[in-house]
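Give me structure tokens for this 290-residue protein.
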Amino acid sequence: MVMKVSTAIFSLQRRHIKMQIRNSLITLIIILTAATAFGQTQTGRLTDATQTFSFVPPSGWLAKAGDDDGFALVNEPKTIIMLVKAHNYTNFKAFSDDAGLAADGLELIGEPKAITNGNHFRTAKRMRNGIMVVDACVLFSEDGGGVIVTTLTDEANAAVGYNNCISVSSSVVFNKPKLSAAGDSPLSGKHLLYLYTGNGYSERKDIYLCASGAFYQSTGLGGFTPNDSDGASFGAMGKKHGTWSIVGTKLMLQFQNGGTTTYTISKRLASNEIGLNGSRYFVQTQNICQ
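Here you go.
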């Protein structure tokens, strides 16, 4: 019996959640693909929500646009799943250094090879019902960042998955980014601060939006339980950076590791506050960047 790719991916998703494996780029691809509900058959060229790239999907495939995270596609027999997603890497070395294949149990098959505008590599993972084959085509734009096209399938359909990865990659067209998007926003050069304290838990998030289009983010978590009844008190701090833009009423943060976070912006009564996905953020001046 041919192993259905969807079964293998959902199995990986449960295992990743249970083991709390770190969110490397490949892990995110697997989880996002597994969680995406596919839409109608697509024909013609598709353009991402930020209008930074477009591509031609395979004929007859079903497609679903993610929340500013690109597209997930599947062929009619559901034996091949594809993800087309923007990334923020400057070159293939930066991408490969951050891929974390071993952490995800993926084994590199052969050596990466050059393709038009980028590189292709293949990895595989032994599953309970067979071997999952992952082909990744990592493309780079002259204006920075790029697109990764990934196909996930079993051994029987690996050749077709590879051909579709190459075909879609060759159809990708990059659009020149609107460099004025960040600088023209009222949030340009501002510090967005989120604070929460309650029930023995505290959280702080700082987002610095530079006028250049870069951003810096730090997140602090902490908490305690009376007499450490649920274990010792905890604390954590994470720092990230990347580029930001405003698309309609959405704030998009594209992280250096290739991930993207999108916030819906809403107004609040106080002039020094905004809502991001319904949460209150204070808008402050800053000297971290200008």
